[in-house]
Amino acid sequence: MSLSPDTLTKHADPLPRSATDVPHGAPQEDPDRHWFIDRAKVYAADVRGTFRRLKWAALVVLLAIYYVTPWIRWERGPGIPDQAVLLDMVGRRAYFLWIEIWPQEIYYLTGLLIIGCFGIFFATTLFGRVWCGYACPQTVWSDLFMWVERKIEGPRTQRIRLDKAPMTGAKLAKKALKHAVWLFIAVMTGGAWIFYFNDAPTLVRDIASGEVGTGVLLFAGLFSFTTYFFAGWAREQICIYVCPWRSYQSAMVDEDTFLVTYEDWRGEGRAPLRKSQSWEERAAAGLGDCIDCKQCVFVCPTGTDIRNGQQISCIGCGLCVDACNDVMAQIGRPGHLIQFDTQSNQIAKIDGSTERVRLVRPRTIIYSLIMLTVGCAMGIALYLRPTLDVSVLRDRAPLFVALSDGRIQNAYTIKILNKTPIRRAYAVSLDGLPGATLSAAGEAMADHGGGGSALTLSADADQVATYRVFVKIPSSAVKPGSTDVVVLAKDQKSGETGKHPSVFIAP
Fold it and tell me: Are 301 and 142 contacting, i.e. CB atoms less than 8 angstroms apart?
């Protein structure tokens, strides 16, 4: 980005940026006349510099992760999906590399959400809205859409003139091409999202053969539309009015948080730079380094004027830093009139005292400890979690059955969860009720037998096996009322035991 000589002496912004850009003393609109203010479209200019390169790097890496991840394979054994990251809604599983999460283990998702939330808290405490400026999906896809817009419609001034110009064939062609590319990106985005819930190669073959289900098409269309609307049309409106994080961030920052900061003590008063004016003359007139070129505003994706102080519309991307440094270099002044800095450092610069960087402070320690604690707890739980789980549901109607031979019978539905990739056999027994015999109903009885103190039941690999089991005991061997018991299932190969408490009801 470069400035022409005319730019140094005057600037013309063809569209109002915000209420703060209205000259002092100008007639103000009566707020009671309108329910809301019309949106002033933001025409973000291109810029080169350190933070622009960081944003490009983040965009490329994050988009690559998003689009490539569903195609990574991970061998898990026969009959189990080999997609490295898959949320199998039909099979009721979540696969993350070597980790398989069952519906009963939804607490792992809670742990991930806690780590994610406090991770954003931690980053915000150190560097402000760095998440919003570099990693938020709204920012990443909006950046991509704006890049497409600049490539097709041209730089900022050309886009403004194009929008103001009457509709012609050339204008219609550019607009149609832009929206066609946007729609293509949106469809690719929505399609890639669906791959996280379906096996990617299989789904592609189904789409090619026209055998894809209505539900898949519905959700792909929904995500495609939201991508197109949010990144192409809404853009900064999502960050300013919809996203709740804009309001939360003020509670996360303190005087030692690095934020995009305008050094008003050095830049004010601001005024255009005249060719014949020396810096000594400007200083004598009470003018600072800011020549009011507004390049910092023009490159901002939300149209924020950082010179007016910290605002909720600023997403902390730092593009205004690159723009201002470029201008300072052209006019021969020191850079970093706008920079990432802390409030304490700005005060130190004004007072002439020593600047400081405090990355380690109470809130960063607390956030780190919370993330570390939750992460360690999840890691230990994953390492120690059993490959066998047993659940028992006792029949409530009837509570018990008095058999003709004098025994009392209770019926139970036993579910055995086998989390291993091979079929397993389990010895099922009852603890707390001496003399009881167990038998399985229907075909299970023929396959596994019954009538003894233990019952051999099996479960297929990575499946839940359900059995109806009858427990019988002589009436003389059980106390009246309720007796606490424990159903045990022991893996006959590994010896691992699962247990579940229940009760036995007698007259």
Answer: yes
- Residue 135 DSSP one-character state: I
Cα 467 to Cα 157, 236, 344, distances in angstroms:
73, 57, 68
Q: How far apart are the first and last CA of the chain?
A: 90
* Sign of the torsion formed by the C-alpha atoms of 278, 282, 288 and 290: negative
- The token duo for 351 is 């007072």
Contacts of 220-223 with CB under 8 Å at 24 or more apart are 220/187, 220/190, 220/191, 220/193, 220/194, 221/190, 222/190, 223/189, 223/190, 223/193, 223/194
Using the Cα atoms of residue 74, residue 75, residue 77 and residue 82 in order, give the sign of their dihedral. positive
Which among 135, 236, 151, 156 is positioned nearest to 185, based on CA atoms? 151
Q: Is 226 exposed, middle or buried (0-12, 13-18, 19+ CB in 10 A)?
A: middle
Number of residues that this document lists for the chain: 507
The CA-based angle 165-169-173, given to 5 degrees, is 95
DSSP string, 347-391: HHHHHT---------HHHHHHHHHHHHHHHHHHHHHHH--SEEEE
Q: What is the pLDDT of residues 196-210, one digit of tens each?
A: 999 999 999 988 888
Question: Do 42 and 294 meet the contact criterion of CB atoms below 8 Å apart?
Answer: no
DSSP string, 139-156: HHHHHHHHHHHHHHH-SH
What are the Cα distances from residue 300, in Å, to 51, 133, 236, 319? 12, 11, 10, 6
Q: What is the predicted pLDDT for the residue at 449? A: 46
- Whether the pLDDT of residue 250 is over 90: the answer is no
Q: Kindly state the DSSP code that residue 73 receives in the 8-state scheme.
A: B
pLDDT digits (tens, 9 = 90+) for 16-74: 344 444 443 344 445 455 455 677 889 999 999 999 999 999 999 999 999 999 999 99
Single pTM value for the model: 0.81
